Amino acid sequence: MATRKILITGGAGFIGSHVVRRMVNHYPDYHIYNLDNLTYAGNLENLRDVESKPNYTFIKADIVDGEKMQSLFQEHNFDGVIHLAAESHVDRSISNPMEFIMTNIVGTVSLLNAAKANWKNLEGKLFYHVSTDEVYGSLGEEGFFTEETKYDPHSPYSASKASSDHLVRAYHDTYGLPVKISNCSNNYGANHFPEKLIPLAIHNIKNSKPIPVYGKGENVRDWLYVEDHASAIDLIFHKGKVGDTYNIGGFNEWKNIDLIQLLCKIMDKKLGRAEGTSTKLITYVKDRAGHDLRYAIDATKLNKELGWKPSLQFEEGLEKTVDWYLSNEEWLQHVTSGDYQKYYEGQYTKR
Ligand code: NAD
Ligand code: DAU
């Protein structure tokens, strides 16, 4: 049987690297192509353990480059795409929306066009678009996002992801492209870039620096361990229904301030500090513009139809994550040197 060629975009990023590792290791009969242009968030150190595997190839390219995408599809004749490449940080989208429009919208369309032009026989072909629960907007105290919830994005990031979701569906409805979409809640785990709440707080606690909490810390996020997201993507890619959307989440809601308190407790223990030491670092700062109050995913469809459920409880996942950061000092040093300092000062010094 011919080898199945799978293109994963954004595979050097946080979630992408876990998806690439899973696919390379679980499917030795597939060839996995990881396409990434290595922005500040892309890091080949995330993939050291798979880079010499015979079923893995890295391609450095920008998804916005339509001609390049066409020529790569012609050259490799990919059978499937798992599309994760994106600008992913809400705060950056507030300061610089255009990069989000280019990568998340134009980049997605350039990939869709390459698939549409090169997939003459659609048998066995699939374009799987990885998206976010932020497209649904913000919840009040009650309720959950289901696959039927109306789109209502607020940040430039979520609006760009909502737009890309609509375009993926449009290529299915208009041109018959076989597509699937999943919308997931907040991920955490190893290799998470320290601009996002959990790794930023771990980094600051470790260095006894202030932990910036936006507003009153009352916003709620629904946290999922990154490897559980990767397992859901694997399952949906193989068993999900073409044309369908699946919500992914762990029914694991936390107010930001409660999460930070728990993290402080775990880190005090791990670092041999007296209980209560790290909570003194909590610093309330100016709120994020347009800050969504609450996200909560109803993942019943994924559970009922495909039997998926998360493997880890939050406290266990958070401890594993802290352990990873404490034993990967060099990784953290590499990603927080250079441009990171400039970004951090720009975001937080006068906040
Ligand atoms: P990330 O920022 O860590 O990684 C993004 C990757 O995409 C990086 O490796 C980067 O180099 C690459 N990339 C960016 N622009 C590119 C371009 N123009 N061409 C090629 N590669 C490019 O992001 P992440 O947190 O791993 O998120 C991955 C995907 O999952 C995104 O689509 C995001 O919207 C979605 N998502 C993320 C979360 C989360 O909690 N992080 C939750 C739900 C969905
Ligand atoms: O819900 C899925 C989304 O989760 C993904 O689509 C995004 O790519 C991902 O970045 C994440 O978005 P959030 O904005 O929810 O994640 P972030 O880690 O930036 O923020 C989590 C919460 O913590 C949010 O309410 C803002 C708050 N926060 C964040 C930072 C960086 C703080 O209070 N202080 C901070 O310094």
Topology:
Blueprint: E1 4-9, H1 14-26, E2 30-36, E3 56-60, H2 66-76, E4 80-83, H3 90-95, H4 97-118, E5 126-132, H5 156-175, E6 179-184, E7 186-188, H6 197-206, E8 211-214, E9 220-225, H7 226-239, E10 245-248, E11 253-255, H8 256-270, E12 282-285, H9 300-306, H10 314-327, H11 329-336, H12 339-349
Parallel strand pairs: 1-2, 1-4, 2-3, 4-5, 5-6, 6-10, 7-9, 8-12
Antiparallel strand pairs: 9-11
Helix pairs in contact: 1-7, 2-4, 4-5, 6-8, 8-10
What does this structure look like?
With about 350 residues, the protein is an alpha/beta fold. Helices cover about 45% and strands about 15% of the residues. The protein has a domain at about 5-190 and about 225-250 and about 290-310: Rossmann fold (3-Layer(aba) Sandwich), CATH 3.40.50.720. It has helices spanning about 15-25, 65-75, 90-95, 95-120, 155-175, 195-205, 225-240, 255-270, 300-305, 315-325, 330-335, 340-350, and strands at about 5-10, 30-35, 55-60, 80-85, 125-130, 180-185, 185-190, 210-215, 220-225, 245-250, 255, 280-285. The strands form three sheets. A seven-stranded parallel sheet has the order 3-2-1-4-5-6-10, sandwiched between helices. The radius of gyration is 20 Å and the shape is globular. The mean pLDDT is about 95. Bound molecules: nicotinamide-adenine-dinucleotide and 2'deoxy-thymidine-5'-diphospho-alpha-D-glucose.
